[in-house]
Amino acid sequence: MSRWKTPLLTIGLLVIPVIEIARWIRVAKEIPEGHEARVAAYLAPLPAFVQNATLITFILLGFSLAAVAVSFRGLDLEGAARTVSLSLLTIAALLSGWLLFTLM
Q1: Do 81 and 4 form a contact (C-beta atoms < 8 A)?
Q2: In total, how many domains does the chain have?
């Protein structure tokens, strides 16, 4: 079980960003109006103190970069745990790139 600790921690760190990006994609498909209406619909269910798209992006980016760092540590594992860590590293890096791109 100890060799699966790193991949499981990486998955735990990626859960929130993946859910939030899936929620954004769903909102973007459902709201035919402009970008401002989509952002307002996305932020509506969140508490008032985090209703800032840039802040949310930085928080999700932090989770994604932490997942990159943790999964990078898993590359010295052996067997299937290494393969899973490499796959998660790729997913976390792509997710981090997407979040960085949205900040531009």
Answers
A1: yes
A2: 1
* Domain membership of residue 46 as a residue range: 2-103
Handedness of CA 9, 14, 19, 22 (dihedral sign): negative
The tens digit of pLDDT for each residue in 74-104 reads 888 888 888 888 999 999 999 999 999 988 7
CB count within 10 Å of CB 18 equals: 17
Q: What is the SS3 string spanning the chain?
A: CHHHHHHHHHHHHHHHHHHHHHHHHHHHHHCCCCHHHHHHHHHCCCCHHHCCHHHHHHHHHHHHHHHHHHHHHHHHCCCHHHHHHHHHHHHHHHHHHHHHHHHC
Q: Are 70 and 91 in contact (CB under 8 A)?
A: no
Report the C-alpha dihedral over residues 22, 24, 27, 28, rounded to 10 degrees. -110
